[in-house]
Each structure stands twice: as C-alpha cells, then as structure tokens.
Amino acid sequence: MAKELKQLTKRADNYSQWYNDLVTKADLAEQAPVRGCMIIKPYGFAIWEKMKEQLDKMFKLKGVQNAYFPLLIPKSFLSREAEHVKGFAKECAVVTHYRLKTDPNNPHKLIVDPEAKLEEELIVRPTSEAIIWNTYKSWIQSYRDLPILINQWANVVRWEMRTRLFLRTSEFLWQEGHTAHATRDEAIEETEKMLEVYADVVENFMAIPVIKGFKTPTERFAGADETYCIEAMMQDGKALQAGTSHFLGQNFAKAFDVKFTNREGKQEFAWATSWGVSTRLMGALIMTHSDDFGLVLPPKLAPIQVVIVPIFKGEEQLAEISVVANDIFDKLKAKGISVKYDDRTEYKPGWKFAEYELKGVPLRIAMGARDLENKTVEIARRDNLTKEVRSLENIEDYIEELLVTVQNDIYKKAETYRNEHITKVDSYEEFKKVLEEKGGFIAAHWDGTAEEEEQIKEETKATIRCIPLDAEEEQGISLITGKPSTKRVLFAKAY
Length: 495
Fold this sequence. Notes:
By secondary structure, the chain is of the alpha+beta class. The chain contains 14 helices and 27 strands.
C-alpha cells in the first residue's frame, strides 16, 4: 500500500505551521532527540550540499583554502576579547568533565565521574575566532606570511531557547572564513569581496534577491568593527539575514598578540576578517519560493531537476514507454541535467505527481500511450504549475532552455514581491501602520543612536536590518526624536 501524502497547512491560515509542515513532509529535516537540534535528511542535505559546493568553488576562486580547527575551545581563549565573549556568553555549552562511570548504587546507570574534572573548562565551538587567532600567532611573523585566507566547514553550538528547524537551532552547519592581512585596506577589501560572493550565490543560485548593507553598532557581530550583511524578504513580510561578513580590525590580533614585521621592519598587529553563512539558508530558500503544494526549488539547487513519470497499463506498455523515456533520460544526462526516471509500479502516477510537487522538482515530464503514438510528452513546470505538450524532437534542448527560464522566473517573482514590500515612511505613526498592515522593509530616517533604535524595537519588534550600501543621500528627520538624518535605513520584523 502506498504511503499517504498529507496536505500542508495553508500559508494564509498559519504561515509558521506551513513552514514546519513543509520541512518535515518534504523530507528535509526532523527534530533530533537532543532539544533544539535537528536531523537533516538525505533530500535536505542534498540541497545543502549543492549550496556548499557552489560556495566552496567561489571561495577557492578567491584564493581561500579550507582547513579545520577543534570543536572544543579553552574557556580562557574565549575570554580574551571582551566584546566577543559578552556576545556569546549566554549561548555557550561548557564541557567540565571527561569521563562517565557506573553508578555504584545502580549498575545500569551512568554518572559523571567527579574525579575526572577538567583542569580548564572547554567551550563547544559557538564560532572559531578565538582558537583560530591563537593559532595564527604561530603562523604569522612577517608581512611575507600574509594574507592568510582560511575557511572551515563545520558545526557550531549556540544554546538557543526558541528553536525552529533550519532557521534557529542549537547546533547547525555552516562555513566560517577567517582571514589575516597586513593592512586595514586589504582587510576591508576582503570583507566586501566576500559579501559579494554571498550575494552572487544567493541571487544567482538560490534565486533570492538581497539588499547589501552594513549593520548598526547595536546589531554588529560581537568583536567586529563593522558587519556587512545581505538581507532577504520572506513571503510573510519578515526579513531574514542571509549572510554576514565582518571587518574585525585588529581586535583579535591584539587579544592574541598576533604581530608581524611589516615592510619597514616595524612590529604591527595583523588585520582580520571573518564571514559566514549557515544552514539557515535552507530556511530562506523554503520561505522565499515555496507554496501551499510544497517546495519550489530553483533548478540550479534542485537535487533532481527533471523527473520523468510514465503513465501506463500493464508491463508491456511500460516497457514501450521506457524505451523512449530512457532515451530522453540519456540525452538530458549528457547535458549535465539531473534527471530521474520513476518507473516504480507500486505507486500510481497521481501519487508521484504529488510527491515531486511536494519536493519541488522544477520540471516533470509525463508520458503515456497516446504520447507514445503522437511522439510527444507533457511538461509541467513546478514554479507556476503550468503544463504543455511538446514534440520529442530536440526535447533535450528545449528542457535545457526551460530550466534557465524557470530559474530566472523564480528570481523575478521573488524580486517583484520584495520590491512591492519596500515602503518609505516619514512618521512614526505611518511606520507602525505599515508594519502592522503590510510588513516588509520600511525605509525610514533614524537619528543614529542606540536609544532610538532600542525604543523602536521594544515598541514594534522591528529592528534595523541594514544601512543599505547604495542608500541615497537625502535630508530628513528621524522617526522619534526628530533629529536630522541624511539617509534612510531599512527596518523590518525578522527571523
């Protein structure tokens, strides 16, 4: 008996439940036995791998090398950079002992051996600046050793109280780049370069339009002099930070005494950057494109780009259809297109259609006995749910072109929605009205103080998502204090 495909909660009824349903029912991830952690299932991991593959390729084109650093960090290391430790202290998981033993009162129970206490407590990696810059101290002596461009693919732990699969979990996967430079200008150039890499991947592969900007001092990464970010808009009008790149100045070099001899023969502290994206991108992908029927995947990230489904009665008819279907399969495969021929007999075509719709496969080719006679196939697009009948002649070329069209159309749809949800306001009353009734990004003037920023956050739950890099100079007054302002910033409620 075929397993039942349950319907999703509709977005309009309960957006949050729709998201949770989609993540689990599309076989992307599920809750782990450990509170706040997740199990990423093969289909979800296949999508993450495609993101990872593209990012890794682009990092290496920029001269970045991969390395790996320990999961466990001595607590004293984390304490050396004051702002850094303050930013992560509440989320740190701490290892205090290294051994278990059998409970003398219960041979079936294990307890922590009190005699196996660590001399120094260890922090489970929330981020790796501390241990990496302690390492760089022995790697850097001269300007000839610079720049160092290192990335690692790893997991991190930040003990979250409120979690949601992919968007916010206690343990998640990410990449973290850590670079060291001889000059301030080189470090800033690297920070901006990596922001462009993120924007490129998110826009051109994930088909998600983003706004590039930098964070306010309140929203900066702990220990950074400047944080650059890309911000995306989800279908419910909330923003999502899709990637960050940080200019760390000389803060970590000073904390870990990383000095080098410059070209003039003088001792100087190195300049630093760090940058990262995580499996949170999976959440962004889902919430930007998907609909009430399931995932909508841009072809460049779809594990299966095309699925071929035969419609048949009896084994003889299936065998006849399979000859043509396998020919199409081979031609598409030769073009580098990821294709699946689903000739399973235990599931009906309608069930298969619903399954691939749920999983977001960009194109579906259906072929029955009549198609065989007419030398045609039916092609269904997942993004706009349209169907068409096409001749088999040069079908592989048409499919190749159609995948490009689908990729572009998915981006354009998201871009249109995003642009329609950027609203300029000039008063606090208008700000609150738009936030409540429409949501999205609100472009407004801000007086530059943490006090006004915090008041708006407390009263509306909206934060300054970024100060856009391309923000136009214009005279205005801030929302609450009425102080003069020269450019608008983007506010939004966010994930």
